[in-house]
Amino acid sequence: MFEDPDRTPPRDALVQASPSLVVLEVDGRTASAFVATAEGHLVTSLHAVAGARSIGAVMADGVRSEVVQVVALDERRDLAVLRLPVPDMVPALALSPQRLPAEGESVYVLRAVAGPAPEVRALEVRAVQVLGDWLTLLELTRTLAEESSGGPVLDARGEVVGVATAALANGRSLGLVIPSRYVMPMLRSTATAPLSVLEAPRRRAGRVRNVPQHPLTVLEGASMGAVESIASTLGQAINVGAPAYNRGDVEGCYRLYARTAEQLIDERGDCPGAQRALRDGLLRCVELSDADDRAWALRDAFDGLLDVIQRWLASRPQAPSGRKPPPKQFLN
After folding, report:
1. 49: which strand partners?
2. Contacts of 40 by beta carbon, 8 Å cutoff, 6+ apart
3. Is residue 325 part of a domain?
4. How far apart, in whole angstroms, are the C-alpha atoms of residue 44 and residue 26?
């Protein structure tokens, strides 16, 4: 099944890739996956299998198998590698970690479905988002169905350039591609663990975000320079704090966020709306005793400001030459 007949997909590559796709049946829902090694390493999105008590794998030829082993997890990049119980059940789909499609290029998202032919969507890359040295990803022009998460993404040459992810950012649905180069180290792991290791990511993924939705008037009277400076400072704090949080230094992440909020409150008298938003975030922390909750309270405050800044900059008649809106925050 090919969704967009106006674009010519790499059909030989699709035919070659199709037998490697696997439908995952996870506690009553489905997700996509694909086999990436002869040893049966199965690549998918972590959020698609987080908390799974049982995982069934349905191959393109209809053969079913139970997945009981986890090889590697990457919570920061929403990746999981599982293992089929028997190697060489289906052919492996080679990854291409060298090249990343550029803005405006076409990619093809493969969604595993029952039967030999996958669903294929032709989409364009809206933007290449650099969220720090820990992650570069592709944002697509359209959203993806949740069942597409974990499927391979091909470029116009038929090379597998990444893993499809249906994501949310500030309440908006997004279609993302996590580049193949982040999967390669996970495939080299020889360790295995039971499905119970997927429970911790489920608990973290289940956290309810409380990101404020500010009107554009919150930035009323602020200059372009002041707004961009605030966005830059917030982005830098997140790019340091989020990896620290993911390493387990929750208290360090919270302290960094708190210092950043206090610094901006002291220095940005030219943007009182941003000061108020950050004070509200700090006041929320006073009522919270757990460092994890406090870190997320400030992260919510930061993301709310970044969201309104993004919208405020987009509403300007014309951005100054060479300046871009701050990057969206997706997976931190």
Report:
1. none
2. 83, 84, 85, 86, 87, 88, 89
3. no
4. 12
Q: Are 73 and 197 in contact (CB under 8 A)?
A: yes
Residue 320: other Cβ atoms inside 10 A: 9
In terms of domains, do 193 and 68 share one? yes
Two tokens, residue 114: 């029952």
DSSP 53-112: S-EEEEETTS-EEEE-EEEEEETTTTEEEEE-SSTTSS----B--S--PPTT-EEEEEE-
Number of domains in the chain: 3
Same domain assignment for residues 19 and 66? yes
Among 137, 171, 205, the domain-final residue is 205
Place of tokens 């974990």: 150
pLDDT tens-digit map of 204-257: 555 567 889 999 999 999 999 999 999 999 999 988 888 777 667 889 999 999
Contact in structure between 316 and 224 (CB atoms under 8 Å): yes
Residue range of the domain that includes 22:
15-92+186-205
